[in-house]
Specification:
mainly beta, 1 helix, globular, 7% helix
Length: 216
């Protein structure tokens, strides 16, 4: 069986990365990172995501994905340091989420909303977190997400219509297909933070995935 997690070992209580975390850069020090996303926690009895870089080193992890500790999803680095906290926006029409830096729930950095226009190819859009109470926030869009998450074929575009991140199926290895639980996340690091791109993957799975949503 093809190994998804080449440089990581894990136990029932903790995940151990065999290499210390490094800044994300692509091959030949380019500013494109090609990540492998595995829709699985490396902890037993947990659900989540595990993300590896092109060398097979652990980069991001989510271990509380479906348990929903107070309705929050925590994105961590390889060592378990909290990077982003993702929460459903309360008292909001539609499917809206807030993304905070670290574990603080003050001054959200991003607001992500599911598109309500079924005739539009846009799946969701992202605005700055401080625009959450602005009725015209759709006019201040930072990123738009288009495509099909169920097919693992999505593009994230900035306000200049540049492709800044992309979700793609992972290529089969020796004829063995990975299915939809293992896929690629390609990030243009000059135009979007890698942890932001991963937060958008998590939210697409919340909005369009087949799994049960977290409790709120």
């Amino acid at each position: 069986m093809t190994r998804v997690y080449p440089n990581v070992c894990f136990t029932g209580g903790e995940v151990i990365s065999e290499k210390p975390p490094k800044p994300l850069v692509g091959a030949d020090h380019t500013r494109e990172a090609v990540l492998t996303v595995w829709k699985k926690s490396l902890l037993f009895n947990c659900n989540g995501f595990t993300v590896f870089d092109g060398k097979g080193d652990l980069v991001f992890r989510v271990d509380n994905y479906m348990d929903g500790n107070k309705g929050e999803i925590l994105l961590m680095d390889a060592t378990g340091k909290p990077l982003l906290t993702i929460c459903r926006k309360k008292m909001s029409l539609g499917d809206s989420w807030l993304v905070y830096d670290g574990e603080t729930l003050v001054n959200p950095t991003l607001c992500v909303k599911k598109s309500v226009n079924i005739l539009n190819k846009r799946l969701a859009y992202v605005t700055q977190g401080n625009n959450t109470n602005n009725r015209n926030s759709s006019n201040n869009i930072m990123y738009e997400i288009e495509g099909s998450y169920s097919q693992r074929c999505c593009g994230v575009y900035d306000d200049k219509r540049r492709l800044v991140a992309e979700i793609k199926r992972k290529e089969a290895v020796r004829g063995v297909a990975f299915g939809t639980d293992v896929f690629r996340l390609i990030v243009q690091l000059d135009n979007i933070r890698a942890d932001f791109a991963m937060a958008l993957v998590i939210l697409l799975d919340q909005m369009f995935g087949s799994s049960r949503r977290i409790s709120t």
